[in-house]
Fold Midkine.
Amino acid sequence: LLLLLALILLAATAEAGKNKKEKAKKDGSDCEDWRWGPCVPNSKDCGLGYREGTCKDESKKLKCKIPCNWKKKFGADCKYKFESWGGCSAQTGVKTRSGILKKALYNAQCEEIVYVTKPCSSKIKSKSKAKKGKGKD
């Protein structure tokens, strides 16, 4: 009886494996040269959305997400390695840093080097912070 139960479980597992393989073939594609468009949010300029892809006569839509804090002009599909922020320019009141392309996702057209700026901080950060409640009186 135990041997019969083991054989039934083994057969059910093998059948489940076949179904997964068949399902993957049905959903998948033999096409290898997919061209993907940008992630288009469902509403506004960030959040959940979709990305359309084409390959020969086939087309697909994939779910994607643009983070809502992502306001950079070079897009969420271009990943860059950024250097440290440069010094504050007294003339413009901004500081700059550059980024070198690390990875382009979904065949995105990305610039090799990008420059970003931000306003200089008007606050002066102090190096030593006051300790509350733990100092000697």
User: Anything to note?
Assistant: Helices lie at 2-27. The longest strand covers residues 94-104. The chain has a mean pLDDT of 78.
